[in-house]
Amino acid sequence: MPTYEYACTSCGLQFERRQSMNDEPVSSCPACGREVRRLISGGTGFLMKDTHGPSAGNCSLETTGRTCCGAASRCSDAHCGD
After folding, report:
1. CB proximity list for 6: less than 8 A, separation 6 or greater
2. Domain 1-43: top CATH class
3. Which end of the chain is more exposed for a tag (fewer CB within 10 A), N or C?
4. Hey, is 52 helix, strand or coil?
């Protein structure tokens, strides 16, 4: 089950909730009850693969020797985005 990060738009509290992907997002801050927004983060242990798009099957460094952007090294290396 993924862990989602939230931040309160009023008091600034940041917190995490472990939720199913089918659960409704948290909508109120546990501290002040005001509105929260879900943050986007890298997370751990979760990988999405495009198995139907034009790059399907060609997006793995281990399989093709190239990443999606055409680099010959991992996206976590400093080159990515250059």
Report:
1. 14, 15, 16, 17, 25, 26, 29, 36, 37, 38, 39
2. mainly beta
3. C
4. coil
Rounded to two decimals, the pTM is 0.50
Distance from the first to the final alpha carbon of the chain: 34
- Strand order of the β-sheet with 14-18 is 14-18, 3-8, 36-38
**Close Cβ partners of 17 (under 8 Å, ≥ 6 residues apart):** 3, 4, 6, 26
3-state SS of 59-80? CCHHHHCCCCCCCCCCCCCCCC
Tens-place pLDDT, residues 29-74: 999 999 999 998 665 555 555 555 554 444 556 666 666 666 666 6
